[in-house]
Amino acid sequence: MTSGTARLAVDIGGTFTDVVLETPGGLTTTKVLTTPRAPEQGVMQGISRVLAEAGTDPAEVEILIHGTTLATNALIERKGAKTAFLTTEGFRDILEMGFEKRFAHYDLTAKRPDPLVPRPLRFTVPERKSAAGETIVALDEAAVKAAAAQMRQAGIKAVAVGFLHAYAHGGHEKRAGEILAEELPATTVCLSSEVCPEMREYERFSTTTANAYVRPLMAGYLGRLRTLLDEAGYACPLYLMMSGGGLTTLDQAAKFPIRLVESGPAGGAILAADLARARGLDHVLSYDMGGTTAKICLIHDGRPDRSRTFEVARVYRDMKGSGLPIRVPVIEMVEIGAGGGSIARIDAMGRITVGPDSAGSEPGPVAYGRGGTEPTVTDANLALGKLDPDRFAGGQITLDKSGAEAALDRAIGTPLNLRDIWPAAGVTEMVEENMSNAARVHAIERGKEASEHTMIAFGGAAPLHAARLAEKLGMTTVVVPPGAGVGSAIGFLRAPVSYQVVRSYRTTLNDADLNTLNALITDMTAEARGVVTAGVGDAPHVEDRRLELRYLGQGHELAVPLPSRPLEHADLTAIRAEFEALYQRVYGLIMPDVAVECVSWSVTVATLPEQIDPLPPVIERTLATDTGTRRIYDPAAGGLTDAKLYWRFDLQPGATLAGPAVIAEDETSTVVPTGFTAKIDAGLAIVLTRRNLGETP
């Protein structure tokens, strides 16, 4: 093979680490158990395995793209660095006060998340800049040094600095950061004016403290991984997948790891968007179920929904407002604790509940035989015949079916007086109900109807549940792509190198100074281009410029596009017209006599997206040949039934089959229930179609 013709993608999940090698000969994939205490070991194990299988040398790898849940897990499990917070005098409790509102108005037991930084580790110093940039109180440098001495005594490993109005005037923050770096040379220092230069101090401070909290962990991990790669002969660049769907360099990822919080799920959304464009699907629901969580994302016209705010680590009934607000670019999705490793139990009311806690990879489900004692969704699927105990994860793990059944009987069956398959059936039914509720609510909150979408299912566990989930949501079509078990990692290989810069600068359109605005946009564009070109040089790229506006006095904004050239006076009139047209669509009215205020400006620079060619239709149909049968649970049959078995790689475009059936492959299995037919399309995806009652397969 010619040097530099292979690409690697690695996705670390809570249970499995997925590795994909792309060469001119196609994809080579594998799953290995995640090694949580030293994640880089699992990564190197998986990489070595796929390269050996493909006969590829490390020197032939031209790029490695990596996504991980390490930052997310550190925030959820509170396993980050001991962090301090330095802020303006009088604002010590911003992190505790939050938005000063209740997310559950009538629930007196509603719990808010504890701040990442407890009050004794929050320090204040005299300083004050006005919103206009005037120095009201000069920075007390002696107070900064005194705070640093207390931090040193407390054993602080990371410091977040957040001053009032630093989003626009960061001079005091920069100087405080310099002093802290001198006083605490071994300590990570993060400035809000660099991490999140936007107004709204609570979200800015929360994002900055979260970045500081996970930065030592992520920087250490990325450094160790880079060292192991170098020692093994991988001289290729290492890129990190960001939550917004783009790739960034190792240096930027280590500096701003908070941008990686949703990196794994973002790869899956990119894969689903590419699949949707190739198949001409305008309305898609992306369904990604792995070992720890399930992720659901809406994709319209080949583009996933995006946002610049989200919450992580919700602590109360997965309710909005019960998590830590993070303000970074992100692909918008809902994530719930419903994966193969999600633990099933009986709650205080005698009901079967599943998750959100997971058995992970250590000890893992009972069936793994690694010391797990609590039954999980994987144990239930095994007991229902949906998994082959001898071929799980490509045959790397031999599953213990009797152990899984015993655990289900002990934890679910005996307390509820259920026998045979019914404890396992109850577990899968509950997890599917949880996922369908999450998908339904996610769609409704965005003014959509889930039943009007086509489902694209991937992840190690999603194809096992996709058809049943589609039934619950009223969907008629499910697409299971090739390599579904490692779908997010495949999505990494399709992502552009990109970077977004966002800054707040408030002015009304009537009072806007074009020289100031163009200078701001030019500076932002240069910063974004600098990050992208550091990775790909002068490769062709595109720019996306946007402005968030609101009527003066309002508290929320709408975003409109900006031209990719310097702004002119005529543009200001056009911007107002575009804003009011959008406002009319969203709210049903406009206010022509009220001034329009510019709030936040964003510039995204990205390499050119991969060209997606439409798939040709498959006219010829052939009846697929099965390899045998297996007893599986089928809800339509009301119990166990004989299902035909198929090996996915034996099925060519046009092959069709009718449920009940199981289509097996190395990293997952697709269950085709009674009432569904399956057909292989021109892109080798499995297309499940729900038949109408009485319709002939």
Alpha-carbon Rg, integer = 26 Å
Query: In angstroms, what separates the terminal alpha carbons?
Result: 45 Å
Number of helices: 16
The top level CATH class name of one domain: Alpha Beta
The CATH topology of one domain turns out to be Rossmann fold
Average pLDDT confidence is 89
Unreliable sequence segments: none
Q: What would you note in describing this structure?
A:
- Among the domains are: 6-75 and 220-260, Nucleotidyltransferase, domain 5 (2-Layer Sandwich); 76-219, Rossmann fold (3-Layer(aba) Sandwich), CATH 3.40.50; 498-607, Dna Ligase, domain 1, CATH 3.30.1490; 622-690, no CATH class.
- It is globular.
- The protein is 31% helix and 27% strand.
- The chain has 697 residues and is of the alpha/beta class.
- The mean pLDDT is 89.
- The chain is built from 16 helices and 36 strands.
- Strands 13, 14, 15, 20, 23, 24, 29, 32, 35 and 36 form a ten-stranded mixed β-sheet that branches. A six-stranded mixed β-sheet has the order 3-2-1-4-11-12, sandwiched between helices.
- Strand 13 and strand 14 (294-300) form a beta hairpin.
